[in-house]
Amino acid sequence: MSDTAVGLAPNDKVPGSHLTRKIKVQVSPTDKMMTVLIYFLFSLYALICVYPFYSIIINTISANDISAKGDVIFYPINIQFHNYVDAFKIPGLWDAAIVSVGRTVIGTTLTVGASAFLGFMFTQEDMWRRKLWYRYTVLTMFFNAGVIPWYLTMRSLHLTNNFLAYILPTIVAPFFIILVKTFVESTPKELQHAASIDGAGTMTLFFKIMLPICKPILATVAIFAAVDQWNSFQDTLLLVTESKLYSLQFILYNYINQASSISSMVNLQNAGSTAIASLATKQTTTSIRMTVTIIVVAPILLVYPIFQRFFVKGIMIGAVKG
Amino acid sequence: MVRIEKYSKKSISIMKFLFIMPFMLLLGIFAYYPLYGWVYAFFDYTPPIPLSQSPFVGLKWFHTLVENQVKIDQTLQILKNTFGMSGLNLLFSWLPMIFAIFLTEIKSVRFRRFIQTVTTLPNFISWVLVYSLAFSMFSSEGIVNGLLKQLGFIDSPVLLLQNSDHVWIMMWMWTTWKTLGWSAILYIAAIMSIDDSLYEAAYVDGATRMRVIWHVILPSMVPTYFVLLMLQIASFLNNGLEQYFVFQNAFNKDSIQALDLYVYNLAMGGGSYSVSVAISMLKSLISVVLLFSVNGLSKRLRGESIV
């Protein structure tokens, strides 16, 4: 799979490019104009993707009174970091952070493990009714019982207001299983055959041989599963009423709408301390909302660029094969 | 080398199944068992009275959806919202394809990687976060209004989030912002797998860039586009809850309530559990029919099915 731009210029490293070298590629003025236009449009769109994050970040480190008026647009004004210090005083934020981190770590580990195992097992042709169970699994992607039946089910299983409700339903994920299965099927069959002739049982095959090989696709699954866990909001909305179990996203949503009461609470706490509560560092609804937003999105902003290369390739492998 | 068979083939095959059985059970509990909840649609369920003691009403709730003009109007409004928003998404479903085509036109690898990273980022943030971003930018004290005020265009803030007028377009814009970069990846994969000989043939014939795009790249992406389009049609009724829930407020309720959100509001807001389940059930059934129709269509037109 070539990583470079697909053979449009004579000297790109594309297979068969020695042929294009001899052919003169017509580059008309319209083509040059197109290039400029394309670069411009993409840069514009990239800006649109980045600006919302940028603007909130600069707002959280600017003076709160100026930020509340909507005047901080292109660069921070009167830089201060008080908002992040005050963030620890926001009620419920710490608990929610623990909940979200916990479910992300535990949930992702279990999901990746289950996806790896099931993806592998579904390639075992001698498994009893393999096709049937595979269809049984994949079919679940195409229907949804609905919000109320889901709630009723979880309630009857005593999973409302229960941390396990965040984990158990996510363990068996058909989409990830398909990804792993497709990947395993693209590995040479001789590998498994050689191992089983040497006496390797199913488990040995899985743990000692296939698991190490599947690292790329498992990394992909891990990222997706982790992001799903970190971003989940609906399960808290439907199943949880105890504030100790709120996920970060749910807290964020509440804060957007209740930011005024929270800002007064934090300011009250600060009033007792010796810190000079100037207008610039006094919490407003805007500052609370934006600071919590950045805290919730920070892990993704930091981790994503690093891992992006991994699973873009992973998805492409899955896409080309599947 | 003689392999001594310790176990029969049959017992090995069953043993392998037993390994995955716990997982199949898990799936059964969380994916198939909730379907049982559909029976609630046929009873007059008012919690906390348990189902066993609730009166059976048959198809009553399905009738209430269209029993008088008011109800019909509301049903139509909900359907309009759903069709409107899903329709908009369908209308612009070709955008990721064009995005991918022009992205691969960029020769600088570094710039391309940068664009890819930046534009796929919005896909990984939650709708709650999107709402927070939208709020910061478009609310009355937000940045857009701040800028407009500074530039002297307006005196009082423009209400962008609190009115019913442009909800569909705004929802479509946010959906596009969030998914464009990511959806393009599939098409980029398709472009990468185009055989080089096709390009060579085009160049030998003296093709310019635009012609190469038109005659080589575009045709090879049509199969992928077709599959994705069919899948989108099949999930026409499933707008999703989270996106519309977070943007919902008292002012835009009329035009933002798509089916999923309506089902949720009916139950959680209005306490009408049975009606909610009834609508949910209808929606699921119609979606399955849609899926199979689309699948059948695909079989006829392309010779292969999607599912």
Describe the structure.
The complex is a heterodimer of chains A (322) and B (307). Chain A is mainly α and 322 residues long. Helices cover 68% and strands 0% of the residues of chain A. The N terminus of chain A is likely disordered. Chain B has 307 residues and is mostly helical. The chains are: A mainly alpha (322), B mainly alpha (307).
Terminus-to-terminus distance of chain B: 43 Å
What is the mean pLDDT of chain A?
A: 82
Number of beta-strand segments of chain A? 0
Work out the helix count of chain B: 14
The major sheet of chain A is characterized as: none
Category by helix and strand content of chain B: mainly alpha
Report helical residue fraction of chain B.
55-70%
Order of helices and strands of chain B: HHHHHHHHHHHHHH
List low-confidence stretches of chain A.
1-21
Low-confidence stretches of chain B: none
Structural class computed from helices and strand pairing of chain A: mainly alpha
Largest protein interface?
A-B, 105 and 111 residues
Shape of chain A: globular
What is the N-to-C order of secondary-structure elements of chain A (H for helix, E for strand)? HHHHHHHHHHHHHHH
Strand-residue proportion of chain A: under 5%
The number of E-state strands of chain B comes to 0
